[in-house]
Amino acid sequence: RVHSLKTASKETGIGTPLLNNFLTEAGAFAPDDARTEARKTFDAKTYQALLDEIPTLVAPGIMRKVIGATLAELKALEAEGVLVPRIKVAKIKSRWRISDGLSLLESLEKLAVQVDGDAPGWETILLAQRRLGVSVGSIIGAIKDGTLRLGKRADVFGYHGFVVQITEVAQLREPTQSGVAPTAREGELNAAAFGRSIGIRGNGAFLALIEGGHVPAIEVLHPVTRRPQWRMRGEDIAAFHATFTTTTVLAAETGMHRNTIIAAISAHGVRPFRPDGLEVGPVYLREDIKPVLRALSSRS
Predict the structure, then answer these.
(1) Which domain of life does the UniProt lineage start with (predicted)?
(2) How far apart are CA 284 and CA 199, in angstroms?
(3) Is 78 exposed, middle or buried (0-12, 13-18, 19+ CB in 10 A)?
């Protein structure tokens, strides 16, 4: 079954300008497609989930209330890619999935311990970032990796109630930030941080690839915390990119929106890399993605 922009709008009750923005970003239309609403056609089955989802998306104000975050906190979560709106077009207000916010809260609540509201040394995640320069994404990643404790103020609802020990966050800073001279770590990158930078944010997901022998890395002691950690050299990172890719990496390489790439991957039936059935996030074998890249290239 084929939909046109016009018939889809009539069926869903969603205005054609809004539909056009979502479908273009999802890859149904080329950005410079100047056809009329009746002639802009797309496969109805491929994009039905998107059509169903658009009416459920909410504006920032509602999202903030649902997750208990300030405007600054929501903006920081978006900037770090911890929460990603369904569409990048800023002029569209209702672009947030409530389920994404609730999922973040649930994942953090499982890791949090209750602390008193006046307990010394505990600060909100955003305030810790502003004081120490450690990114919100790195703080949350360290919480999920188990290297940073998370507290929850019982009298504060939602995300704003999550707090971290400022002294522990200080230990996450790179040696040059902490005033410690670089050592053998120079030229290396924290493996968990690399995983987050390429869009793998699951608790320990990227480290599971390393520990399973699928990605090369070296285990060293952190010079500040003295805890063992996996680090990647330039050749390790190159080896990863030669064999694997992620939707975040593909978006950077192609210049296309991540949702467009996800839709193309789904349309080609490409499955994520799952070693022995292990869930490791949006990681794909480069070889499997080649047909998707050819299709995206011909479309652009």
Answers:
(1) Bacteria
(2) 12
(3) middle
Distances, alpha carbon 238 to alpha carbons 218, 231, 244, 289, 298, in Å: 14, 13, 10, 17, 27
Residues of the chain short of pLDDT 50, as ranges, are: 175-184
Predicted local confidence at residue 61, as pLDDT: 95
In angstroms, the CA 293 to CA 250 distance is 9
Pair of tokens at residue 153: 């103020």
Residue pair 256/212 in contact by the 8 Å Cβ criterion? no
Token pair recorded at residue 60: 């920032």
Per the DSSP assignment, residues forming a β-bridge with 153 are: 115
Q: What share of the chain is helix, strand, coil (3-state, %, to 5)?
A: 50, 15, 35
pTM of the model: 0.64
| CB-CB contact of 21 with 15 (8 Å) | no
Residues whose CB is less than 8 angstroms from the CB of residue 96 and which lie 6 or more positions away in sequence, other chains included: 57, 58, 59, 60, 62, 63, 83, 85, 86
Angle subtended at Cα 220 by Cα 219 and Cα 222, rounded to the nearest 5 degrees: 135
